[in-house]
Amino acid sequence: MTSTPADRPALAAFAVDGGTFSLCRAVRSDLPAILGLLAADQLKREDMSDPAPYERAFEAIDADPAHLLMVGELGGSVVATFQLSFLPGLSRRGSWRAQIEAVRVDEALRGRGLGALMIGWAVDEARAKGCSLVQLTTDKSRTDAHRFYERLGFVASHEGMKLAL
Fold this sequence. Notes:
Blueprint: E1 12-16, E2 19-25, H1 31-39, H2 52-63, E3 67-74, E4 77-88, H3 91-94, E5 96-105, H4 114-128, E6 133-136, H5 143-151
């Protein structure tokens, strides 16, 4: 957890045990904290030895208005992150959908409702943008995450597939 800029606006703020949990659009100086959250992932897929690919990805995400890379701050430190993307589509009568990815909460703070606040905010943003649905994927091995999303109303309605390139 690292300190973050005090001058950026919070897009949402929630009173939680321990202070105010603020959701802000990530800035470049948040990248080390975001990478730390990603590296702490139980699947251990991230290779942080070269930050350049992450920096390029941040720049692309930040420059595209269809993507929001968000951080959650508590006590002036980044303790959570997620990415929210808005995708047009021809299916469902040409409707837009929102996709939530890379949801992470500092392990020491899990179970305090921060993840639910983030997902609730993302769903509200999707609704405000006119999306007809919100989608996400979670690794099959993450049974705790499956229960978390189901408690929030998500339904495991599709079988996702990936092809590593």
